[in-house]
Structure formats: structure tokens, C-alpha cells
Design a protein that fits this description.
alpha+beta; 535 residues; single chain; 12 helices
Amino acid sequence: MSPDDASFDAASFREPASAPRGEPLVPLLQAEDALGDPDALATWHSALSNALSIDVPHDLLGLWLYPACGGAVLLGPEALAQDDLAVPLPAPQILPAQTARLESIVHGAGYGSVVALPIRCGRRDVGLLLVADLRALHYGESERPVLELVARRLAPMLGRMARQWSATAGASPPVERVAALVDAVVHAGAHAGAPRLYLAELGRALERLLPHDHLELLVADASGARAYRLGEHAGGPLWADPSLVIERQLFDLEAMFGTRQSLVIGDTYQESRWPRGYFTLEEPAGAELRSVVGARMCAPRNVVAYLLAGSAGAGLYGQEDAALLSRVGGLIAAQVALLAAAPACTSAPLPQAMAAPSEALVTATPAPAVAGTSEPEPPSLLEAAELLAAGTEFAESTRRVADLAARLLPFDDMRFALRLSEGDRVVLLEPGERRPLPDLPLIPVAGTTLASVLQGEIPHSFMLVDGEARLVVPLRVAGRVHGALVLTARRPAVLRETHIGPAQQLADVIACHLELLRRSALLPPPYLSGWKKVR
């Protein structure tokens, strides 16, 4: 296929705008567009071959990807798969003797000139470039530097693909991968207690959408003069471990971000303000972060935090990654505020049955579209999470979340049961309620299934009596139960036990926001100085 072919879409690829004259123009494909799309890969490979042929004429351009999960994947040309050519596998890098052996095999197949080059991103080889021509002695000292430059240009793209590639990479569209991320984020908030465990869970969830070698969560003090590595905090009072405190003289986060809410560093070796070696001090040689993407979040209770992701390969991130990380920052802002605060004491541990995440993915299944009509996009947990993250008034946010949840689950009434003490009484908070929690009546629940859920004795409850259904799932934060989500459906009720998984996911999304509200209600009233009135 050539660029003149009708199916060639030049807008799908981008050329490096800053390439000096005389350097080869290397078309680059977005890694997410290539995952599981053979047509996009074939078209891009053809464009790469055509562009490279100007500087390095060839009869064969073979390109392989080395996924992080192991093995080798032929990206092009497709016909080369019929030859069953065995390529060396990196461990984590390919040795010169291995490439020499491959060149010898291709020579024996009738090609007079052959060059095989590994494509390295960070500490490991992520791809292999093979260029061959039928003419003998055709590649000399001028061609090899060009091919090495091409390999360096391809490294960020293939490095990202290597981290995201899987046997079913193309089976899930981006919206489903983001929904899976939200599911994993809320599960981490529900189960991970210490900040270090929480960040580890978050990193695993984020890997498929944002490949990284290191994830850092930092919280700034009130003056902004210091930052604390919250993601490395094992528990206990914050700022107690001096080894986790970063002074402004070492790393000035405010100056680095400036007025922006996100940050992209293509190569930390070219950024003098980046504290080289600090975050990877205990890592082996070659682990230094080269590319970094970051987001600043303003969490409740005036907490300012920074979420940073880094890779050992340069040039791995772009503005779309910064937008994604900013979105994640909004989702976890309430959880970060909880992690930065002292732990509450009024809660129950999760029962063993809750140890595994819910398998249900809360995305509505769209009905078959009618010809000539346009169906609205189905709601998802992502919308609910972002409503809470972006909302400035909690009462209005909960009302809008309840409206959205009604499109996901068949209920008539939603209430949140919150424990304000260790007793057997709760307050019932309805979406849109504007009264403070202490002003709401305390309802005794001893001996009920709601009490059993609150105490962690059972993982959830579903009852169907005279056609009316009631479903109760816990509000979980950091491995403990602080309340419950109660859904009721009037007769004839459609709400069933199959809705427990989606209801639990919804509860996990809103739990940390309700926990902030609950903790605020537990604070003592402010002290007002002055003479006591005597009546």
C-alpha cells in the first residue's frame, strides 16, 4: 500500500515537526489506535516503509513488538509471518550476537544486505527493526546512523504499545477501559487502607491506560514550602517520616506547574528543575525517569496534592496523557483528602466476602438502535464519579448522582445510612438534603439487616416482600464500613439480587465523599471566646 492509495489516511499519522533537514521523516501512530487494529498497523507500516525508502532503499522492512507480557508480535509486513522467521527475545535487552545471528539467517535467504537493530525504551528493548535489500554491500556507514535514528524515533510509540499490548488488546474500546479504570479506582479506595497500598492499587489500575514505571502522590503543606510523599507513607501521622519530606529547594512543585493544572516533561535530562535520581534512588541502574506527566488536584479541606507518573523512556507522554491524569486526579481527590487526614475510629472492618472486587462493570448495555434515530449515550460510573469530583455543592451533586443512578438501576428511593457513633443509631441522608448531619434524626437499627451490613457481619442484603424490594450495600472506605447505601423499589419491583454488584460499585464511588461529610459532622463545634450568658 502506498500513500497514493485511496485507503491511506495521512491524518492518522504525525511527522516530527522539529526534524532537522536531512533526517528521515518517521510517521508515528498513536499506540492506542494500533492496539488490536490490523488495518491501522498495516497502513502505518506501509507509510513507514515508503518514508524510509528515501534514505535507506530496501526490499524488506520487518518490524516486531516485544510486549511486556512476553513474546514477539510481528507488526509488518503481514506476508513475513509465512516465513516463520524466529527473532531473538530480549532479556531485557537483545545482545549483539543475537542480532548478528538473525542477520546471517536473512542473508542465507537471499538478501545481500541486512541490518537488524533493537528498539530500546528505558531499560528494555521493546521492538526490533529489520531492513534488508537484495543487492549486496548496499548498507554502509551512512545508512546505519539513519536506521538508529529511526529506532530512537519509534521507541516511545513502541514502548507504550509494549506496556498495553495483550491478546485481547483490541477487544475493549477506550470507553470500556476508562470504565474499568474507574471500577479499579473505587475498589482501591474501598479496600486499600494505608496510602502506600492505595497508590499501588491505583498504579495497577492506571497501567493499561497510562503506562508508567513509577507513580508518585505528593501532598503539599499549607505554605507550599514542603511536600510529603503520601504514596510512600505506610501509615500513622503524616510528616512523621523525614525521609519522605521534600523541601522546596530540592523540588519546587509550584514553580514547575506554574499556573497550569497539568505538566508534561518530554525528557527530564533537559529539565534542570527536575530532581534527577531522587524518586528512583533505591532502584537499579537505568531506572531514572526520563519522561514525566503530572496533574495538580485541589482536594477537599484545602488539600493540594500532585499525582506524577514517570517512565524510564523519553518522550512517552503527551497532552492527552496529562488530560487523563487530571481526570484521574479529580476522581481521587476526596480519597486523597481522607488519606491526608487522621483516620476515624467509628467504623467496622469489611467481612471476608468483600475481599474481592465486584465483577460487574457498571455501564448500561445500549438497546439496538432504530434505523434513522440517534440513541443517547448510556450513563456510566465515570459520570457519577466526575459529578462528585467537580461539584461544589454536595447536596446538589448527590441529587444529580441519584438521577443518573436511576438510569442504571431500577429503584424508586435512595438513602444513605451513616453512623455518627459506635451505637446502633444512624442518620438517613437523602440525595439533595441540605441540613447538616447533626440536625438529622438518629434512627435505631438494632436487630435489622441494615445493622448487620453496618457491622460487617454480612456483605450485603436483598429482601423482596409483597412485591417491594430493598437492597443494602456497605459504604466502604480504606477497608472499613462507615455506612450503607439503601435502595428501595415499590411494587411491582424490578430490583433484584443481580443488581447488587452495580449498586456496590455506585456505593464505592460516593463512599469517600460521604465519609468526608461524616467526619466533618464528628468534629467538635468551634470554640467561641467570651463571657457565658446567664439567664
